[in-house]
Amino acid sequence: MKKDIHPKYFPNAKAKCGCGKVFTIGSTKESIEVEICSNCHPFYTGKEKMIDTAGKVEKFRARREKAKSASKTVKKPRVKKGKK
To answer: What φ, ψ does residue 32 adopt, rounded to 5°?
Structure first.
């Protein structure tokens, strides 16, 4: 590696998660704060959370059902009316 062009590397940097877990990683910063880690991520914990405060999931499902029913109806092709 060339000298004086790379940032300083900290092999024992502390990473702090929002859940409270602190672990050591290698980084160019001495300390890092993250929102989610392997201790609290649903993929690793096996506990899936469904947070839907605004009803967005229900709105999406309603739109999907509407699209399914609309695709079953046959639409006539549009004829362009143009100048001759």
So the answer is: -135, 140
Q: Is residue 43 part of a domain?
A: yes
Sign for the CA dihedral angle at 29, 31, 35, 39 comes to: positive
pLDDT in tens, 7-28: 999 999 999 998 899 999 999 9
Q: Please indicate, yes or no, whether the overall pTM of this predicted structure exceeds 0.85.
A: no
**Which two structure tokens, joined as six digits, stand for 17?**
């998660």
**Rounded Cα distance, 68 and 84, in Å:** 39
Q: What is the DSSP string of 3-24?
A: TTSSPP-EEEEEEEETTS-EEE
pLDDT at residue number 74? 58
Range of the domain at 63: 10-67
pLDDT > 70? residue 72: no
Looking at the 3D structure of the chain, how many domains does it have? Answer: 1
